[in-house]
Amino acid sequence: MMAYRRGTVRYQGEMAGIREEYEGGYRFTYDVDYLNNPEAEPVSRTLPLDQQIWESTTLFSFFDGLIPEGWLLAIALTVWKLERRDRFGLLLSVSKDPVGAVSVEAIP
């Protein structure tokens, strides 16, 4: 399956995995080096540390929760000229420097 868009997922600044959008939906895969780190933490309770590829037909609720709401979302939609329904595009555009421990940055 070829990915349409991809993003690196970092946990407290450390590369934790890859987030991808493809024809059938979305997937998340932990980075092997991250999994081999004995101090590694899961990026979410719903995505425990595992070598499996996590797949879903919808954007995982954890990642959707990283997208701002309200006035901040309105600013992001205006500045980056994004569609409100393009949740993956929003995730890649606005989750590079979040308040929490997990960030997502687009891979060109």
Describe this structure in words.
There is one protein chain. With 108 residues, this protein is an alpha+beta fold. The protein contains four helices and five strands, in the order E-E-E-H-E-H-H-H-E. The protein has helices at 32-36, 61-64, 70-79, 87-94, and strands at 3-11, 14-22, 25-30, 53-56, 102-107. A five-stranded antiparallel β-sheet has the order 4-3-2-1-5. It is globular, with a radius of gyration of 14 Å.
Note the topology.
Elements: E1 3-11, E2 14-22, E3 25-30, H1 32-36, E4 53-56, H2 61-64, H3 70-79, H4 87-94, E5 102-107
Antiparallel strand pairs: 1-2, 1-5, 2-3, 3-4
Key traits:
about 110 residues; alpha+beta; about 25% helix
Task: Report the helical percentage.
Answer: 25-40%
The ordered H/E elements are EEEHEHHHE
- Read across the widest sheet, the strand sequence of neighbours is 4-3-2-1-5
Radius of gyration: 14 Å
Short description:
The protein is α+β, with helices and mostly antiparallel strands and 108 residues long. The chain has helices spanning 32-36, 61-64, 70-79, 87-94, and strands spanning 3-11, 14-22, 25-30, 53-56, 102-107. It has one domain (3-107).
